[in-house]
Design brief:
The complex is a heterodimer of chains A (222) and B (308). Chain A is 31% helix and 21% strand. Chain A has 222 residues and is of the alpha/beta class. Chain A has two domains: 2-118, 3-Layer(aba) Sandwich (Rossmann fold), CATH 3.40.50; 133-207, no CATH class. In chain A, strands 3-2-4-5 form a four-stranded parallel β-sheet, with helices on both faces. In chain A, α6 (95-104) links the parallel β4 and β5. The two termini of chain A are 28 Å apart. Chain B is α/β, with parallel strands linked by helices. Chain B has one domain: TIM Barrel. Chain B is built from twelve helices and eight strands. Chain B has helices spanning 6-12, 30-40, 61-70, 86-98, 128-141, 169-182, 195-207, 210-213, 226-235, 243-251, 257-273, 292-298, and strands spanning 17-22, 46-49, 75-80, 103-107, 157-162, 186-191, 215-220, 278-283. In chain B, strands 1-2-3-4-5-6-7-8 form an eight-stranded parallel beta barrel, surrounded by six helices. The chains are: A alpha/beta (222), B alpha/beta (308). Bound molecules: iron/sulfur cluster (2 copies).
């Protein structure tokens, strides 16, 4: 899922500026699960903003609403009435949710209250980590199901650099070396052979490097 | 001859090779390069020029290499995958070759996190294996990475670095084998202090017959102090400094530490020279280049052979 993290309160207050009627729109899917922008976080942020503004002697009117998903037209339609009466919308969804609102409500001013950080999973309560860089050309079949693109700090495709130590990456002793993980996994699978094959230069054009991506499926079109 | 470089000639003539290393300045000061070049002249067959080592901005490796050529030294340009994509790398290699650079060391590159621009974007369009393959194909197949033909191809004697001490060892040997398959001609190892462990690694290398396919140069470096020895032992990935070496450095006291560091370096050279399959040494004395002549002299490796 998409993992995000709420922006610092001061940055959010600066975005709101002098506005005094805002809507905080959460999202009930990924960012709710990673506790960055679900309905609970929406109400916490609303209280924090109210308190800060009261302290400044500039009270603010805040509406709260958290659709199940902020990245699909039918779900954001329910925000219509609240957006109409607000002069600013603070989106607590990922960057996709923010842009869905911008596209659906071109007259609204929408600001992001969350930093969208990565595609990952909750490893344990309170810990999230990255698993996929959406490179558009998955190689997990060759690497024992462990992604070299985002789990190796250098996105190496042919094995570890010389910087790994005790299974940790050269950038941080807290970070597992992705290639150590791949090696261990391939060993268990009895597929160490995979490591001897040279992976040719990757075609990055299926990723962000190829420009904005779009999938069009004629078979699915109405 | 693949490149016709002096290093290639020395190695293919079966002579024990000596390479040294020159760290370009963190400035546009040509004098620094010329001074270091003067010191190293005549005591190494070729000199590595680092490419923004540890991700700190320094004078370009290729530009510095060209300056060395003008002073009559043979450079080994270094190229990392961190800062350039395949377009920039190939372009720089065409230029390097046109400037007379004949040796190229292909590296992954240190992550920028610990350099002086930790907020920069990294590239890693290719990894070191793919880089080696690309440079070899440019030379032997006369093609760019995309497959297009090159009219006048860059001809490099291709090298890589390898760490015999990083874990897991079987994976490290496999990585060397992969670099050999990708197309290297020589390899320079991480600094050797633990000769015993290095000898074991060489055994594995010989078992795979890799010493017959590429020239292996053992990395060596003089220690300046006990502190440096401890720092390397604890903080430099893939570095193995045995207690015996630390004890030797401690025993002589502060005043004679540098001298002992040089002695240890010479001892290591003499020992690795006897290991089957070791084709030369790579003396790394970054920011201490002035001791290289003394080390090479004491190891009995002077004068350097001249091959026409
Ligand atoms: S290889 Fe690409 S698609 Fe597959 S997990 Fe990694 S980044 Fe995602
Ligand atoms: S130490 Fe491992 S994870 Fe880190 S850059 Fe090197 S190979 Fe990748």
């Amino acid at each position: 899922m998409i993992i995000g993290e709420r922006k610092p309160i001061q940055e959010i207050l600066d975005m709101i500026g002098e506005h005094d009627k805002i809507l905080i729109a959460g999202c009930g899917t990924c960012v709710a699960i990673c506790m960055a922008g679900g309905d609970k976080e929406v109400s916490i942020l609303a209280s924090a903003i109210r308190m800060a503004r009261n302290r400044e002697g500039k009270p603010i009117e805040i509406q709260e609403h958290t659709p199940l998903r902020q990245c699909e037209w039918e779900f954001v339609d329910e925000l219509k009435d609240k957006i109409k009466v607000s002069d600013t919308v603070l989106s607590m969804a990922c960057g996709i949710g923010v842009q869905t609102l911008v596209e659906r409500y071109p007259e609204a001013v929408v600001y992001p209250a969350v930093n969208t950080t990565f595609l990952g999973l909750p490893e344990e309560q309170g810990v999230w980590s990255e698993r996929c860089g959406a490179c558009g050309n998955c190689v997990l079949d060759k690497t024992g199901g462990i992604c070299p693109i985002v789990r190796c700090s250098k996105s190496l495709l042919n094995g570890p650099c010389g910087g790994a130590q005790d299974g940790k990456c050269e950038i941080d002793p807290e970070v597992d070396c992705g290639w150590q993980l791949i090696y261990d996994r391939l060993k268990v699978l009895g597929k160490l052979d995979n490591l001897t094959k040279i992976s040719p230069a990757k075609d990055w054009s299926t990723g962000r490097d190829g420009g904005p991506r779009k999938i069009v499926r004629e078979d699915m079109k109405l | 001859m693949k490149s016709g470089s002096n290093l290639e000639k020395i190695l293919s003539a079966g002579k024990f090779a000596v390479t040294a290393e020159l760290g370009p300045p963190k400035s546009a000061d040509a004098e620094v390069v010329y001074k270091k070049a003067d010191i190293l002249k005549g005591c190494a067959d070729a000199v590595n020029i680092t490419d923004c080592q540890t991700a700190i901005v320094r004078m370009s490796s290729i530009a510095t290499a060209a300056m060395l050529i003008s002073k009559g030294l043979e450079p080994i340009a270094q190229m990392t995958c961190r800062d350039r994509n395949r377009i920039a790398i190939q372009s720089d290699l065409l230029g390097a070759s046109a400037l007379g650079v004949k040796n190229l060391l292909c590296l992954t590159g240190d992550h920028q996190k610990f350099g002086n621009h930790p907020q920069s974007k990294n590239v890693f369009d290719l990894d070191s294996i793919q880089l080696i393959k690309m440079v070899k194909d440019m030379r032997d197949e006369k093609v760019f990475q995309c497959g297009e033909e090159i009219k006048v191809e860059p001809r490099f004697f291709i090298g890589a670095a390898e760490s015999p001490f990083a874990d897991p060892v079987e994976l490290r040997v496999l990585m060397l084998a992969k670099k050999v398959t990708a197309g290297i001609d020589f390899v320079q190892t991480q600094i050797v202090y633990n000769v015993e462990k290095f000898a074991k690694w060489m055994e594995l290398v010989r078992e795979l017959g890799l010493d017959k396919k590429v020239y292996i140069l053992a990395g060596v470096a003089p220690l300046k102090s006990v502190g440096m020895a401890r720092y390397m032992k604890n903080n430099v990935p893939g570095m193995d400094v045995p207690d015996e070496v630390i004890n030797r450095m401690t025993a002589v006291g502060k005043e004679r530490a540098k001298e002992e560091g040089i002695n240890i370096c010479v001892d290591v050279i003499n020992q690795v020279k006897e290991i089957k399959g070791v084709a030369g040494v790579h003396v790394m004395a970054i920011e201490w280049e002035e001791v290289v002549p003394e080390i090479v002299e004491k190891a009995g490796l002077l004068p350097r052979p001249k091959i026409g």
